């Protein structure tokens, strides 16, 4: 297995910020263009994906191409100059990119989720200001989760009021995208315990991003520790994120559907790798009575089964996107719960097929597929790491409570 070479005790004390884009990002016209651009980018991203994973090379040029392509603003409302495309399209875009390089697909997740939250909770002036940033190609990273808390939604990071700005203090981890972000939304509590997004400039004094992500999978998600030491954030960039969860909104389902799309992308990549290997490198089994590995009846059955299960997950992913579209337009307890439920169903199937396809790859392709030169274990490592984001066993609980007892899912970013 290829493992991370990062030594956390020797990680850089601070990674310097990157420059903002000098030219505005492209604005997508419609859903078809978004899919076409995603496919074109994926064709380039896949070329060095294995090397980036093996050597833990940051996808700098790839990320610039991705965010400048217009795909990072596809959920900006039309009223503010954005495309406002369907969340079914957004999910398909993330799946396509993730099939090429799932780390790059994951990096966009929190940016798109924050854009959605701004639409839900910000006033028009703040929306105009922050949506303009997204349309210019500005990348939002994230500093949400904390390493030592008892539960994922427990936060110790806080801010204090200082007139026209707030001062934020805390420490974060699992900060996907923060290393090469231009703005870093920090989840911080006010004096009433309410969670806000304090969107800090990546180069703000006191904001330190450390390159110490050492997971065996999703190795180039540009994550790590974020230290927040008296960081000043203007109130224009203080977003009341808690409002997205104190009443029914689609915000949680939006964060979740992007997770689903990353996993269906990983599954697609694994199945494609299996087919390619079996067709070009694998040998027929001694007792099969056939000359070619691709004529093995058990391999044929297994590929059919994996593909069927992936298609089922993709169908639910599209259904979830359309349900989210309805919940965004008309956020009621019923529409939001429906979006959450369909997304949870998709999350279950996407997790199961991502793990199954990345594991089955080696069984069907044979011993030769485990050679380090192929680095095919990256798909299993990525699937195993990313599907841990929130446990599927709790998705079954959500579904059972909903269908048996009529209990709507909880309102938070993991549901």
Task: Give a verbal description of the structure.
This protein has 415 residues and is of the alpha+beta class. It has helices at 31-45, 49-55, 60-68, 87-100, 102-121, 124-136, 251-280, 297-329, 333-365, 377-386, 392-405, and strands at residues 158-161, 165-172, 183-189, 195-201, 207-210, 225-234, 238-239. The chain has a 4-stranded antiparallel beta sheet with strand order 1-2-6-5, with no helix packed on it. The chain has a 3-stranded antiparallel beta sheet with strand order 3-4-7. The longest helix has 33 residues, at 297-329. The model is unreliable at 1-12 (pLDDT under 50).
| Uncertain stretches of 5 or more adjacent residues | 1-12
Cα-based radius of gyration, to the nearest Å: 21 Å
Write down the secondary-structure element order: HHHHHHEEEEEEEHHHHH
In DSSP terms, counting alpha (H) and pi (I) runs of 4 or more, how many helices?
A: 11
- The level of helicity is 40-55%
What is the β-strand count?
7
Fraction in beta strands: 5-15%
| End-to-end gap | 33 Å
């Amino acid at each position: 297995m290829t493992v991370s070479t990062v030594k956390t005790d020797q990680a850089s004390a601070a990674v310097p910020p990157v420059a903002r884009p000098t030219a505005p990002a492209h604005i997508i016209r419609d859903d078809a263009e978004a899919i076409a651009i995603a496919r074109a980018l994926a064709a380039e991203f896949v070329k060095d994906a294995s090397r980036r994973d093996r050597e833990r090379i940051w996808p700098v040029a790839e990320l610039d191409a991705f965010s400048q392509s217009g795909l990072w603003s596809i959920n900006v409302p039309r009223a503010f100059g954005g495309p406002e495309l369907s969340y079914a399209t957004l999910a398909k875009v993330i799946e396509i990119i993730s099939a090429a390089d799932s780390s790059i697909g994951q990096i966009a997740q929190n940016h798109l989720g924050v854009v959605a939250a701004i639409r839900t909770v910000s006033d028009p002036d703040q929306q105009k200001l922050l949506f303009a940033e997204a349309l210019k190609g500005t990348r939002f990273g994230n500093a949400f989760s904390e390493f030592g808390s008892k539960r994922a939604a427990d936060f110790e990071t806080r801010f204090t009021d200082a007139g026209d700005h707030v001062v934020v203090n805390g420490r974060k981890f699992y900060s996907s995208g923060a290393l090469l972000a231009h703005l870093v939304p920090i989840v911080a509590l006010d004096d009433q315990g309410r969670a806000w997004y304090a969107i800090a400039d990546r180069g703000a004094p006191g904001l330190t991003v450390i390159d110490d992500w050492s997971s065996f999978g999703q190795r180039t998600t540009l994550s790590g520790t974020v230290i927040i030491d008296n960081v000043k954030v203007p109130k224009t960039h203080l977003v009341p994120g808690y409002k997205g969860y104190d009443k029914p909104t689609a915000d949680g389902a939006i964060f979740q559907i992007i997770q689903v799309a990353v996993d269906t992308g990983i599954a697609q990549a694994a199945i494609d790798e299996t087919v390619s290997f079996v067709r070009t490198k694998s040998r027929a089994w001694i007792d099969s009575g056939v000359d070619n590995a691709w004529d093995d009846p058990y391999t044929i059955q297994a590929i059919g089964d994996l593909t069927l299960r992936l298609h089922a997950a993709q169908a639910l992913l599209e259904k979830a996107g359309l349900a989210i579209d309805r919940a965004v337009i008309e956020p009621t307890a019923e529409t939001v719960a429906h979006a959450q439920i369909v997304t949870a169903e998709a999350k279950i199937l996407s997790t199961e097929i991502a793990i199954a396809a990345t594991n089955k790859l080696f069984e069907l392709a044979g011993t030769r597929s485990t050679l380090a030169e192929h680095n095919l274990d990256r798909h299993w490592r990525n699937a195993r790491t990313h599907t841990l984001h929130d446990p599927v066993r709790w998705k079954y609980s959500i579904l059972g409570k909903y269908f048996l007892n009529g209990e709507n899912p909880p309102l938070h970013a993991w549901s």
